[in-house]
Specification:
- It comes from Anopheles christyi.
- GO terms for molecular function: adenylate cyclase activity; nucleotide binding.
- InterPro entries: AC_N.
- Keywords: Lyase, Membrane, Nucleotide-binding, Transmembrane, Transmembrane helix.
- With 267 residues, the chain is mainly α.
- It has a domain of 186 residues.
- Helix content is 78%, strand content 0%.
- The protein contains 8 helices and no strands.
- The longest helix is centred in the last third of the chain and has 61 residues.
- The chain is elongated and about 110 Å long.
- 18% of the residues are buried.
């Protein structure tokens, strides 16, 4: 216990902000999630552009598939508008807690329904969007990687692979194509994780630098308050104020001053 107290006192004398590791980690996670909210707009834009492309570019899709894509496009647009105008309001905490999971669920449902409603599914259908989605999960969704991020990434991977195996025709080189699909998805996942860890290292460094700047500011303020208390303990207040003003000036002759005041009729 004595060693712990001595360590704590040493940190106080150095001007450090005493925060438990658990609290500091929680503060960092909150900071990191708020930083990733900006990137979440890229995820929504990618989903909207994919919907527009799926509607505009002929791919032999049925009318039902076009209708379903239009519905998902509308929902994505509404979600983007809600985040734009309500993401900083009273219920912003609840909105930002639900929005990433809802956006991911919409993308997965749309991917599966497009494959299900398509007349003839090939082993390569929607592969590009599945690869991009597997990458964006780690880079743009403001969720914790430890739990939700990994689950969402595995969910994207498993949904696409199972949908293709279940719906696509077992033509020549079918399983070879599945192996290629899996390798592409794994590569997208690894690139997404690499970018995630690089961005997190940068954010953590910025967070620690901000914490150190706060510590220095608190130390300077504490030292300034201590000096003022010391000054007022040995000098009258009006003399201390004048001396403090002179110490803050750029006049090189300030140390030659003699602080004297004349008082008359003192009883």
């Amino acid at each position: 216990m004595d060693g712990t107290i001595a360590t704590t006192v040493g940190i106080n004398q150095a001007g450090g902000v005493l925060l438990p590791d658990a609290v500091l980690d929680k503060l960092y996670q909150s900071y990191a999630l708020k930083q990733k909210r900006v990137a979440f707009a890229c995820y929504l834009i990618a989903s909207i552009l994919f919907d527009v492309w799926a509607i505009a570019v002929p791919q032999g899709q049925s009318v039902e598939s076009i209708v379903v894509t239009s519905v998902f496009l509308t929902i994505n647009l509404v979600l983007a508008i809600v985040l734009r105008f309500c993401g900083r309001g009273r219920f912003r905490g609840v909105i930002w807690e639900i929005a990433p999971h809802l956006a991911w669920l919409l993308a997965i449902k749309q991917l599966f329904l497009q494959l299900f409603l398509k007349g003839s599914v090939t082993p390569r259908d929607s592969l590009g969007w599945a690869v991009l989605l597997n990458f964006l999960v780690y880079m743009t969704l403001p969720v914790l990687l430890k739990y939700t991020g990994i689950l969402l990434g595995l969910g994207s991977f498993a949904t696409y692979v199972n949908a293709i195996i279940g719906l696509a025709k077992k033509e020549n080189y079918f399983w070879q194509q599945q192996v290629a699909n899996i390798l592409l998805l794994i590569a997208a996942t690894l690139i997404g994780l690499l970018c995630y860890f690089l961005a997190e290292a940068k954010q953590r460094r910025a967070f620690l630098e901000a914490k150190q700047g706060l510590e220095v500011k608190m130390l300077i303020e504490e030292q300034s308050a201590e000096q003022e208390r010391l000054l007022l303990s040995v000098l009258p207040e009006h003399v201390a104020v004048k001396m403090r003003q002179d110490l803050g000036s750029t006049n090189s002759e300030q140390f030659k001053k003699i602080y004297m005041s004349r008082h008359e009729n003192v009883r």
